[in-house]
Amino acid sequence: MPRDRPSPREATYEAPPNIALVKYWGMRDRARAIPFNSSLSVTLGRFRSRTHVRFDPALFEDKVELNGAPAVGGPRDGVVRFLDRVRTEAALVDRARVVSDNNFPTASGLASSASGFAALAGAASRAAGLRLSDRDLSRLARFGSGSASRSVFGGFVEWRAGRRPDGRDCYAVPLYPADHWPALVDVVVFVEGAPVKEVRSADAMQSSVATSPLYARRVAGVPGRLAAIRSAIARRDPKHLFPLIMEECDNFREVCETTRPTLDYLTTTSRVVLGEVRALNREAGTPVAGYTHDAGAHVHVFTLAPRARKVRARLSRLPGVRSTLLVRPGPGGHPILRPPRSTRRAPPPRRGRP
Ligand code: DP6
Fold first, then answer.
1. pLDDT tens-place string over residues 262-285
2. Does the structural domain 9-336 have CATH classification 3.30.230.10?
3. Where do the domains of the chain lie?
4. In whole angstroms, what is the distance from residue 133 CA to residue 332 CA?
């Protein structure tokens, strides 16, 4: 074996999905992936995408495998475009083999593009020899999927839109770690018959920018709401947080519904779940839960640990609810390191005579 053989250009990275409490919905510069407004999310524990990337001079084209099957069409093109960006930054020409798996079903409605592109950013940049800070990784990940910029970090995360036209100040920052508010629980409510998303959010949001009469007002209102939500999280204040996240979600939904053609992500059951959360708060006489949802039909209901089981049981009983899960804030993305071959533990000696 030649002594100067280059080390294999491969790396593995794991990243979690997140749920936005303040939504990213619309880009002011699509080519640079710069959003109109900053957004804020909670990183979800339990779930992750794990992605392995290997740059290989023997390959003629990129090979992409997602959840055990070769990727084709849009999903493959998105990965290849992202790899091209990494190759340009690293001055690399080799094609890559990408293998990515989620530990949650893609059709579950959890945002796999956030975890998937954060994991791809981590694995591809390392495999290409780029040693990026988490901030730079977040900057890079947003080109795959805007929400992926937040999945680099754990806990409570803010993606700052920034002001610079070149996007250098457009990245996510960790606000509070996952254990900042141990009582906060996300009851994820999966509804039956959730339609498969046909248009990527990145495209759908741009039609909201172009056609929703409520869009400009939303962009003007988000900074104030974001500051109030950030401060309610800082104070661990459910009474302010829960109504605020519902207000933000309702505003996001109104923008979607007034987009032409209209964007209707919810099912009848999703709407019943939202109504049930409002009823819970009315009955308690104080905010005890708050809902939010993304561009999909499943609903995330935030509440506090002492009440979480009750809330979950009540929501599970609603007709059309397929299943529910309790999820807590979790850690951010991280590399999966394997020791180099030479330092891996030698196999145990064989017993018996040689
Ligand atoms: C409603 O950045 O995930 O979830 O990759 O096209 O799916 P795609 O876009 P993405 O859009 C996120 C939209 C959102 C709100 C949010 O997560 O902030």
1. 999 999 999 999 999 999 999 999
2. yes
3. 9-336
4. 14
